[in-house]
Amino acid sequence: MSLIAALLLGFVSEATAAEPPTFERDVLPILNSHCLQCHGGLHRKAELDLRTISAALAGGKNGKVVTPGDPDASLLWKKIKTDEMPKNPIKVSAEQKEIIRRWIAAGTKSVQQASQFVVPNKPRSADEIAKLIDDEVDRRLAEGKIPASSQADDGEFLRRVRLDVIGRIPTRAEATAFLEDSSPDKRATLIDQLLARPEYGGYWARLWRDRVAVPIGAGEDLKGQYTANFQKWFAEEFNKNRPWDELVRAMITAESEDPPIAFIRQCMDDGQPRANKLAASAAQRFLGIQLQCAECHDHPFATWTQDEFWGLAAFFSRTAKVEPNPKKGENRKGIHDTEAGPPKTRFGLLPLELKDGGAVVIPTDAGPAAGKVVPAKFLGAEKVDLDPQAPPRPVLAEWMTSPKNAMFARATINRLWWQLFGRGLVEPVDSLDLENPATHPELLDSLAGELVAAKFDIKHLLRGMLLSRAYQRSHVALVENEQDKTLYSHATCKVLAPEAFWECLVLSTGGDPDKGAISGASGTTLGSRSSFLNLFDTDEMDGAPSDYTQGVPQVLTLLNDSAMHKQNRLVEQAVREKGEPDEIVTRLYVAVLSRRPREKELKVAREFIAERKGMMEAYQAVWWALVNSPEFAVIP
User: Fold this and answer.
1) Helix (H), strand (E) at residue 274
2) pLDDT, tens digit, 9 for 90 and up, residues 66-120
3) Cβ-based burial of 334 (10 A; exposed 0-12, middle 13-18, buried ≥19)
4) Secondary structure element (H or E) that encloses residue 353, with its range
5) How many Å apart are CA 490 and CA 494, to the nearest integer?
6) Assessment of whether the complete model's pTM goes beyond 0.70
7) Residue 432's beta-bridge partner residues?
8) Predicted confidence (pLDDT) per residue in 127-137, tens digit
């Protein structure tokens, strides 16, 4: 456990003292801790809002509070400098005061800027995407005077790319073939092969299943029927490389019992879809915005308003689960947009009250704005006058996935980057607000433009990211870059998700996860995928990829379950092929960790096996040690 913790230590690089502070990176965290309780989304005393650079510069009822370039003329600085503000006992520290003073003196610098979202005339090649990534990452490293770690060796790269793309380690034969291949383009060839394998769609279907097809709260799918259908559908479509915008439109506009309907059914309460849940889920999953914080009041730390939340919810206000009723002219079944919207539920949950043009009334339990009529409205755009005879969800889906919608393209890129690199270019991955800038804003915009130019071809973007030197760096940090968390000077180790861990465990015994369980594990906790996940599925949805969520019960199971001490097919085969102990141990390392052992590892194993006179149990014990090592549990 301590070794895993060591592998997953953070690596952050702070701004140098000589670098002018920016509002979003340096000043806003201070205001968030000390000032936004009274001057934010919930309360705006003296009509002063300090959540954004534009609002802070605009001032409040008593005029401007910041004069760029002149701290002494700035009311904000005067109040903070003398500890007159904040009123509570916890004052702004001297170090924080100096940041605010320097920020004002330097002209109130902000990273917010006009959108640089530009779509190239034609898609780049994968190599050109990789160069785009590396040029920008290297530029930021040079600015921070942070050296990059070396490139990962073949074993580290093989394990990383296999687990990131298809969620499975290679077999011993596959690992041996790659390690012995001397072709200069073998990494590019491997990437293409992995993106073409059926396991690619299966693995990414699991990732998206957990995000958009698992019921939220009291969502409806207790038997898992819709979740399973969604996973099968998504895997097939992803393997066909169906464009991402089409997949998202299919989820938002799904009807009847079609597989994508799991997205709607995850947001049901008491048998009916809930517009508020659907609005929050769609914004978070597909636009990278945590809009749920604006359901009962304006967002306390971002500029999203309560009107915008319910304006988005209006597009889902007519989504209902219907049953055939020929007497009333209703022949449909399942999820559909209806003229009247969902009915009152058995336990009294009320639908949104509908008004002309698709407007809705903010419900009575949604804070002080309850009863207000809000028009249907795209986020950050004008209101929409909806046709009462046409379903509203397709209107939302077309806007959301439009090539002109920079939010959709950026959120998609940020999610892909987060999956491969262990953190987003914007972090948290679903908080792409103006107040939360990207570490590499130009790179995020360039890749978003590339996604649109490539007509939302996910494989195209993945191929370019995987080819980059930034992705292929070693996770081993240098003394000079070990504190870096944001500039990608070295790779971040990611923890294997429970289902991927189980499949790797099966493969490490010589088994096939698609055909059977772990060799010799019948009737134990490790005996089947479902029994394993019952104990090991401790992940939080969208938790950081580097977070280790297993505890004592899971660790003890891996150490002590009887299946872990029985001879398995992989060990039997490695021994049966004969050879010196070093050769047999090497086979085990290649099969389990996708690399050859280091000399000191061979020495330890050699002495251990010699003490036990080369018995089969000794090699089984070596295998046991490898699968219980921190290295087996992570994506390097």
Assistant:
1) none
2) 888 888 988 888 888 888 888 888 888 988 888 989 988 888 887 654 456 889 9
3) middle
4) strand 353-354
5) 13
6) yes
7) none
8) 999 999 999 99
